Amino acid sequence: MTGRSSNPHLALWVAASGLSHGEIARRIAAEAVRRGHRQIAPDATCIRRWIDGERPRPPVPELLAAVLSEAVGQPLTPGDLGLTAAGAVLDTIALPLLTEAAAQTLAGWTQMDLFLDRRDTLKLALGAPLILAAERMLGGTAHAMGHATKGFDADTAAALEEVTAFFTTADAARGGGLYRSAIVAQLAEAARRIENGVPPSLKTRVFAATADLAALAGWASHDSGRYATAQRYWSYGIYAAGEAGQRDRGVEIVTRMSHQMIYLGHPRDALGLLGVAAKKATLPATRALVASQTGRVHAALGDEHQADRHLGTADDLVADGLGDVPDWVAYFDAAEHAGARAVSARDLTQTGHDRSHRTASRHFTDALALRRPGFDRVKVMDRVGLAAALFDEGEPEQGATAARQALDDAARVDSTLVASRLNTLLAAARPYGTAAVEAVRTRAADLAAFRPTTVAA
Is residue 392 part of a domain? Predict the structure, then answer.
């Protein structure tokens, strides 16, 4: 790996090109002439100054990006080379497809998260930048540069796998709020070790575990209301999955990004992400997950026909059996799909489009009956959803009974996702004025206030 510099991204890409500073300068001059800029003629000293942090004036960054793109066989932008305005590398969700540079960017994200609290200044990616970034990460091939192998050995790789499994179980049970900082700190340590080198024999294990950890850090951040931070960890998770040769693992992470877009009220962006995921999914479990999620988004948009089509595809895949399901997508089963059908039925009913004979409460009941032990957070969400559905369906007494149990469980989980469902419950209970319903409303409002859901970062 190259030594430290004021512009490590440029230093890494220059080293990856295999070209001397003088040859890079010569190629920049030739590219400048080809584009009609005859006054540009850098030398080797200029390249060194740029690596040391000096920022060349336009059009040199574009010329340099073109030269290095050709040399490494991968499209690069001035941002990939660290030549845009200060902070751009950390403020984007796109990663440089180079092992050490990507790890340095991840380390920067975790440092801002843990020590600088940039939650209010990071930008949430929406629209084309979000979808194009996901497409690039799923289709990209990273260039490994360093030859050092001191970052991991078999014992530290096993420890990373074990701690990731522990945090995954803990998050599913108690929500993201309690464990998020510890998960991010562990991800920062993984990034530091990846910068120091990963032995080829351990590459698949290390990057597979890191993909799992980054996906979890993203989900815990989302569940704690840090939405833009979540996007950054997810983007690294997609990248790491590719490094591990697990493209479907990246697909699963893209579905998490789409879930966030639904949650934040951007269903068209969710569909764009799922369209990218659908092209890459190969495993029955990931294909079923993408289909189930896509049906849910169409339901949110009030498109009953498309919702039924995609949910039906997921029905068939689940019924046929999902085969040998990897641990990272094992949560998607008949119960998870029933939960998606429940939310879809709720959304279609609220928009006046549902003509099916099965109500949202029936689907929530199915989901609860099928849930396996250990998924306490999603069980709470199902129970709150069931209570809200019963209120919507004109069953206030049953709704109040279901809500009391749901609220007892919700008090034990630290999760903005649960708080969001509580707000749905409050809206559904609003038309009823009985003492039982009033007691439910008061307690639900208190719990929702304890975990607000409107943080923008």
Answer: yes
In a domain, 324, yes or no: no
Three-state DSSP at 98 gives strand
Per-residue confidence (pLDDT) for residue 158, from 0 to 100: 94
Nearest to residue 303, comparing CAs of 266, 334, 272, 267?
267
Residue that the structure tokens 């179980």 belong to: 169
Q: What is the pLDDT of residue 86?
A: 45
Please report, for residues 56, 65, 68, the alpha-carbon distance to residue 78 in angstroms, rounded to integers and kept in the order given: 11, 6, 10
Place of tokens 């026909």: 305
Cβ-count burial of 182 within 10 angstroms (0-12 exposed, 13-18 middle, 19+ buried)? middle
What is residue 87's predicted lDDT score, i.e. its pLDDT?
A: 44
Count the neighbouring beta carbons within 10 Å of the beta carbon of residue 199.
16
Reduced DSSP (H G I as helix, E B as strand, rest coil) percent helix, strand, coil of the chain, to 5:
70, 0, 30
**Domain carrying residue 69:** 1-86
Instruction: Determine the pLDDT at residue 406.
Output: 92
Phi, psi of 181 (to 5 degrees): -60, -40
Phi, psi dihedral angles at 281 (to 5 degrees): -70, 130
Low-confidence ranges of the chain (pLDDT < 50): 1-4, 86-88, 357, 454-457
Report the DSSP beta bridge partners of residue 143: 98
Does 118 fall in a domain?
Answer: no
Does any domain span residue 261? no
| Number of structural domains the chain divides into | 2
Residue at which a domain ends, from 86, 101, 117:
86
Partnered with residue 98 across adjacent β-strands are 143
Across 134-192, the runs of DSSP E, i.e. the strands, are: none
The domain boundary, picked from 86, 112, 129, lies at 86
pLDDT of residue 383: 95
pLDDT at 456: 37
Query: What's the confidence (pLDDT) of residue 121?
Result: 61
